[in-house]
Automatic annotation (TrEMBL):
Residue ranges, annotated region (Disordered): 1-56
Listed name of the protein: CsbD family protein
Native organism: Alteraurantiacibacter buctensis
SUPFAM superfamilies, alphabetized: Hypothetical protein YjbJ
Domain of life from the UniProt record: Bacteria
Length: 56
């Protein structure tokens, strides 16, 4: 995957995670928090790829 793909997937996961965190169900909130962190990691991965190129 390329830099932009990773960043786009990261943004989507963060957005979905934020929506899930608004739930009144504790399990859904926890899943949303995990998904938000996953999105943050994907964006970081995309940034690293951008800095070093898609060779990583």
């Amino acid at each position: 995957m390329g830099e932009l793909t990773d960043k786009a997937k990261g943004l989507a996961n963060e957005a979905i995670g934020n929506v899930k965190q608004a739930s009144s169900n504790p399990q859904t909130r926890a899943a949303g928090e995990a998904q938000e962190h996953k999105g943050e990691a994907q964006q970081l991965k995309g940034s690293v790829k951008g800095a070093f190129g898609d060779k990583i």
